[in-house]
Amino acid sequence: MGGDKELRVRRIENGTVIDHITAGQALIVLRILGIPDSSERVVSVLLNSPGQHGKKDVVKIENRELKVAEVDRIALIAPNATINIIRDFKVSQKKKVHIPEFIEGVVRCINPNCISNSNEPITSRFDVTVDNDNIKLRCMYCGREISGDIARHLL
Q1: C-alpha 58: how far from chain center
Q2: Measuring CA to CA, which residue among 128, 86, 125 is closest to residue 109?
Q3: Whole-model pTM?
Q4: Fewest C-beta in 10 Å: which of 29, 45, 105, 146?
């Protein structure tokens, strides 16, 4: 290709930067956020970017700030992520995601016989624990535990 130009992702004026996403999880973050959607937002994704603590993914979304429920979902698959709210090209807020103590309506129970998987109008509910950096979800209805690839069970 020639040349010494380096491709860089440009700064955003307003929006959200999700940094320190576990390497390889950015596409799941996009799915959690419903991207791509019908909007005209510019979204930038960095996969396997070198970071201080190894490889990471980064997602930049112009003109959108995340809802609490979206941040809770992201925390389940990227517990070390940081959310940076950008206003007028500056970071106006920076916060680490917080792993919630329980989640509701986010994950489907792996037990096909669980009442949360029936035709009853019941929302899935899980207690969340962290054990050696491994997030574990325990269904509040049947007690079944999910750990490992939680993203497969996101609603």
Answers
A1: 11
A2: 125
A3: 0.81
A4: 105
